[in-house]
Amino acid sequence: MESLFWGAALRFLQALVQATPTILVGLIVAGVFRRLLGHAGTRRLFGDNTWRSLPQAWAVGMLLPVCSLGVIPVVREMRRAGVSGGAVLAFGLTAPLFNPISVLYGLTLADPIVIITFSFCSLVIVTVVGIAWDKLFPRTAVAEPEPPAVGFGAKRMLAVAVFSARELAGPSSLYIAGGLLGVAILSLMLPAGYLQTAAEHDDPWAPLFMAAVAIPAYATPMTAMVQLASMFQHGNSVGAAFALLVLGAGANVGLVAWMIRMYGPRRSAAWFALLIAVVVGLAYGVDQPLYPHGVEPAGHTHAFDIYCAPFQPGTNNPFSLAWRMLCETIAPHEIVALVVAGLFLAAGIGLAHWDRGGRLEQWLERRPEKQPRGDIVLPGPVLGGVALTGLIALSIFGCYVYYPPPSEIFEEMRIINTEVVSAASSRDWDTALYWIPIYDDWTRKLQVSMFLRGEELTPYRRAKAEVLREKLELLEHEVEDREVEESRELGMAVSGAYRRMKTAFLP
Predict the structure, then answer these.
(1) For 410, how many CA atoms within 13 A lie in the half-sphere containing its CB?
(2) Where does the pLDDT of residue 374 fall: very low under 50, low under 70, confident under 90, or very high at 90 and above?
(3) pTM of the predicted model, to two decimals?
């Protein structure tokens, strides 16, 4: 029982840590919509409830770096602005699926046609489901009164921050907590390693089963893309991969709870049933055509272990083990995001307690009697457009940060290679299992880095990277089985594959 509790707590905290950066982005986007664009500007951004609403919601969602938890404050503000229900749900479903960083990572899966097809299928989903929603349930767009304009200067930026703080301390945090709670409950329901054989290519039920698992699950766009990479590498069901992407990254329990609260159980059930039907239908449709040729099914995969219980029953001292696993996986930028989110939450709680009448907002909305000399006052929608464009540009810039130059990547890989080979030779099984997935991830980052910087990614280079990943996978299996001699030999084979790949990429 103790291992189950701390395992669920670990999954909850891991999801929270991963989601915090994109939750902050979602809060900022919602603040820009309310305080800079206004309701009218937000409706224009999403097609003004015309035939353009659905494709525009899909396109905007593809560009903004948010997850299915970070999208919650955004869809809440879209509904306040009077955006049609179909466009709100289209944006809420597609925004968490892709962003520039995850799409580039997806190019390492197999043929780029996979990512193109998945993107097109997401457009089909939002179009079909969105049109059906607007036809079945018209007049779901009910705008609240237009918020007062904010005063000139720094007040505009402060107003965005104040709104974000209040939103985080309000109902959005409850819906976000609901999404995270779904992850914890899923880990209680699925024993450790339960999904390792759940998505085999020859299993006709794989897409349907993965759709059921993905609904309470939560994954950031990058996490979902890493899982897709593992599924293609192991020869798993492509249909199951598609269902996991759309429903695992695109939806969560908190988002569903918000839908039921806003649109009612009957409408939400009808929309969700149609969504499941379209997703599962497309999953079976792409399963055979997109299956990678020449891949030998591995028989099992660790891609879905994050949805299961992290510990076996009877694990000794699960609290200290959970704490160590959490500390090992948290990244520096996630620590910064947690601190900023904590400050926002504290500020929001303080404002809710000491400024219930909105005196701070009244001061922010108070305009000076005359425009300062030499100062150019830009309309709020213009600043909002600049802010959203800046977020998209920052996301693209982040690609070059997330995928550093090949020389830096090889320096990291040199250190990791030493760690893996040393751990495999010295029977340090936990260290080896920790570094092997990171090693695999860097091989894919290397390919994206070459593509971003205009370097030719020849079939020979791809093959050398694939050979290294295959050696790493074999080593991981032997380490899991605690095979001493085989692990030592495969460790040396991994080192040799690394040297040959380096020669191919940096001759």
Answers:
(1) 15
(2) low
(3) 0.84
